[in-house]
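Re: weekly structure request thread

Next one in the queue (412 aa):
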Amino acid sequence: MRKRTISTLLLCLLVCVVSAGSVSEYRASAITMSSITSDSIKEKEQQISQAKNEKKQLQSGLTNLQKIKKELESQRANLKNYVIQLDANLQEIETNVESLRAQIVIKEGQIEETLEELARAKEKEVNQKSSMVSRIRLVYETGDPQMMDMLLKAASFGDFLNKADYVERVISHDQKTLNDYMTIRQYVELCEEELEIEKEILDETKEGLEDELQALEELIDQKALEIRKYESDISNQEKAIREYEAEIKAQDEEISALEILVAEEKKRILAESGVVLTYDGGKFTFPLASYTRVSDDYGNRIHPTLHVQQFHNGVDFAAPKGTAIYAAYDGVVVAAAYSATMGNYVMLDHGSGLYTIYMHASSLNVKKDDIVVRGETIAKVGSTGRSTGNHLHFSVRKDGQYESPWNYISKK
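Done, posted below.
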């Protein structure tokens, strides 16, 4: 029987490795046979460890709704403080929601990229396996090289050394091929593990987003209930009316103070350059992306829970949370801030003493002194401030007085 050389044994071992089940896919973009080393394995293990930590952090970053409710209990007797604290909680959850949505987009992109890389890697894997099988088949079809005989039949010592060097290189190449293959298999397993964790993170992130949105709606509903309960309680009726009137007065004073500051700034600009913003009389665009149901119109009305006649200085448009709020016309942002009554609000200066105000937003997309154009998204619908449901309160002021928004926009 022929003696098998070390090289032949190594190749047989390769056959066993290749035949022991299908080889898993692996990430091959920018990865070659020679670039996968023990350092690559360590780096991949680090990435898996980081992914596991990401899973833990995801859970710890979600809102503890029960804790928030407990903290709010002490504020219920004072409606203003209650609204301010709850709105701060809403803003925190809103930030979590936006962060989770961004994480989902990133993670979906990473998984998509990984899947594409695995598809390319599978093709390379097949080619590699075919190459190794061809090498083994060649050895058996051409007969054993009988390297020991070849060495013994060397014509001279120099010839012996040359043949010995050749044998050593063949054996070294086969050993390296086996080592590389085993390293790649280990790398493949780690890539699969990482992909599995990434998918788990994506699923948990989506679940977390649903939990956050549910918490958001639950707190908004709770606030609406508390405000209605407070205002409709007969024992609180007179106090609630006084508080409401005081808050509206403070709101008007805040807006008037902003108008005075703008007027003074315009005088300074006019004195320096002679250029100042003016309203050209154009028609306003509708301030909401797609929802136009009027839940409370401009003018005198009976307050829904206080049951007294009150002047409503704007138009309330009911709309789902997150609906885009548009700048009604070109202008400059006078204020993008928060107040207990208006919630998150934006005030725009359109020139010639004309202003628009957008209240109760869930989030703001602009800041003070920004220049905006007609139809630009400046905020998103919410229920912050003294609000009992998601809507936009839209007001128009001209020369320090409220005017009907319908003088500038058309009903749809």
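The CA atoms of residues 292 and 412 lie 7 Å apart. The helical segments are 6-19, 38-60, 65-73, 79-142, 147-152, 157-232, 237-273.
Next request, please.
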